[in-house]
Write a structure and sequence with these properties.
- By secondary structure, the chain is mainly beta.
- The chain is built from three helices and eleven strands; from the N terminus they run H-H-E-E-E-E-E-E-E-E-E-H-E-E.
- The chain has helices spanning 6-14, 19-26, 147-150, and strands at residues 55-58, 73-77, 82-84, 89-96, 102-109, 112-119, 121-122, 129-130, 135-138, 163-171, 174-176.
- The strands form two sheets. Strands 1, 2, 4, 5, 6, 8, 10 and 11 form an eight-stranded antiparallel sheet that branches. A three-stranded antiparallel sheet has the order 3-9-7, with no helix packed on it.
- The radius of gyration is 17 Å and the shape is globular.
- The model is unreliable at 32-37 and 151-158 (pLDDT under 50).
């Protein structure tokens, strides 16, 4: 479904200033679609499971302490949590991007992208078609080594959900509120 071109990818990364610019640039990377493998989220919109267990820290459009609002959601997760694909999809990109850590971009259907940023480790390669529930990567573990130092009684207080995953949905190159696509009624 997707033609991986390392030269175009390197040029796109080098010329990107924001995550939105990068996602828009993916439209210029050639795809080879076939009716046999076209995927659809028909009937799944609003019912997709979040890609990782976590607590929603910020919903789309909510400003953070610095007054910056983003079109995606931020999930607090446990260290080394497994991030999985919410739907069958084609991997469009995996790797580091800007200051977002490891990023994976999925294309579950034509003109829809799921952007997951902040992972420590990512699995898979661009062009690979994966099933729903397939492991995509792991969250970091930056606090695990210092966790005991942060707690005076050794109970690891404060490190339960020390990692954050940023998730954005883009349709026709425009951001959409992830709560329109994913079930937000669970606390992980």
């Amino acid at each position: 479904r997707f033609v991986n071109d390392p030269v175009r990818e390197a040029i796109l990364i080098a010329s990107t200033d924001t995550l939105a610019d990068f996602a828009k640039g993916l439209d210029r990377v050639p795809s080879a679609y076939s009716d046999d493998i076209a995927m659809s989220l028909e009937g799944q919109k609003g019912a997709l499971e979040l890609p990782v267990q976590g607590i929603i820290l910020r919903f789309a459009g909510e400003a953070d302490a610095a007054g910056v609002s983003r079109p995606g959601i931020i999930l607090a997760t446990r260290p080394r949590s497994i991030v999985t694909s919410p739907a069958a999809a084609t991997i469009r990109y995996t790797g580091p991007l800007l200051d977002l850590g490891q990023v994976i971009i999925l294309e579950p259907q034509t003109d829809v992208l799921f952007v997951l940023a902040g992972l420590d480790t990512v699995y898979g390669t661009a062009g690979e078609v994966i099933d729903a529930g397939a492991p995509l990567g792991l969250m970091g573990d930056a606090e695990a080594e210092t966790g005991l130092d942060l707690s005076t009684d050794g109970d690891d207080t404060g490190v339960g959900r020390s990692e954050t995953l940023y998730m954005e949905v883009r349709r026709n190159n425009l951001p959409e509120d992830p709560s329109l696509w994913f079930r937000m009624d669970k606390d992980g």
